[in-house]
Write a structure and sequence with these properties.
This protein has about 325 residues and is α/β, with parallel strands linked by helices. Helices cover about 35% and strands about 20% of the residues. The chain has nine helices and twelve strands. Strands 3, 4, 5, 6, 9, 10, 11 and 12 form an eight-stranded mixed beta sheet that branches. Strands 1-2 form a two-stranded antiparallel ribbon. Strands 7-8 form a two-stranded parallel ribbon.
Length: about 325
């Protein structure tokens, strides 16, 4: 088995047709088919069901495809990083993020990374929490900053903080007549807007799970793709929306904090479990430094740090250990 065979197999799996795959690879179809056959003989299992149109992967083929894709991406990453080092080029650090983290600490973290490591090219890639897991495993990104806990055993995660949720309300709704904290049960029987619509699981599932835990039933649930759309629909009086406290980005809406401190959304740092690289500890140290500065988005009312009293004169900043999160998986 060699990398060429893996690339041939991935091409056929993607095209779901030997003819199209051979055209994309610029080789004749017979040698392509022969290489796939040799691969199956070496493995002792059938990878592709050839009697279907389009071609379908067997269960073994699907598993092999995922792992082959990871190997190919890591080899490409190895080639690129080696060339960069050899040519004295900048090292690249790719960070996956969910959009709502841009309203909290992510911009500050990236600024600090660029200040402390000017020789590193910092790249940002917007991905959902679940997309980040696949991107980490394939080598597309180096770390992720998301909101959904993953059960993947190959990915390490650290909860950086728990951010409380607020209810976004149209100003004309009765719930907007008060400004104090509101009980989550206020959503019962109301129209609710959640995001993102896909891919799942996502923050939408996290919100629906919180409601389900308390037997709260919205009259209707409207799923949209992104937070900007969700809040636009709230402004159009189409319903209510639960969002992280830092994401209060529209001034034409009324926001009320949920009165239950357990109703939160975690900010989670993820990276490959097997990685023993400089940037993981560097990022954790810079986050500790950020917390000590007590920026506006890290206020006592809306955030909880594991083991930290943000209101204390000299708060103890926690050790951000791998898999240092608590609570049930989403």
């Amino acid at each position: 088995m060699d990398i060429r065979q893996l690339k041939y197999f991935v091409a056929v799996a993607n095209a779901r047709n030997f003819t199209r795959a051979s055209e994309q690879l610029h080789i004749a179809q017979p040698p392509l088919s022969r290489q796939i056959q040799l691969l199956e003989e070496e493995l002792g299992v059938v990878l592709i069901l050839r009697n279907s149109r389009p071609l379908r992967l067997t269960e073994a083929g699907r598993s092999f495809y995922e792992q082959a894709l990871q190997i190919i991406n890591r080899v490409d990453q190895l080639r690129t990083s080696t060339r960069q080092i050899g040519l004295n080029q900048k090292q690249t650090l790719s960070i996956g993020f969910v959009g709502s983290t841009l309203y909290g600490g992510l911009p500050m973290l990236v600024r600090k990374l660029r200040q402390h490591y000017p020789e590193v090219d910092i790249q940002l890639v917007e991905l959902t929490s679940m997309q980040q897991i696949g991107a980490l495993k394939s080598g597309r990104i180096d770390v992720g900053v998301g909101r959904i806990r993953s059960k993947d055993a190959t990915v390490a995660r650290t909860v950086l903080r728990e951010e409380r949720l607020v209810l976004a309300i149209p100003p004309a709704f009765p719930l907007a007549s008060e400004s104090g904290p509101v009980n989550l049960r206020a959503i019962d029987g109301q129209k609710l807007i959640v995001y993102p619509k896909e891919p799942r699981p996502s923050f939408a599932d996290h919100v629906l799970s919180l409601l389900n835990d308390q037997s709260i039933r919205p009259a209707e649930v409207h799923e949209v793709r992104e937070i900007q759309t969700a809040l636009g629909l709230v402004a159009a009086e189409s319903g209510l929306c639960l969002i992280p406290a830092s994401a209060r980005i529209r001034s034409d809406l009324h926001y009320r904090l949920i009165d239950d401190p357990r109703i939160t959304s975690p900010i989670i740092l993820t990276h490959r479990l097997s990685d023993n690289v400089w940037y993981v500890e560097a990022i954790k140290q810079l986050i500790k430094d950020m917390y000590l500065e007590k920026p506006a988005w890290l206020d006592v009312e809306h955030n909880f740090l594991p083991g930290v009293d943000l209101g204390a004169p000299e708060p103890r900043i926690p050790d951000l250990d791998i898999d240092g999160d608590e609570g049930q998986d989403d």
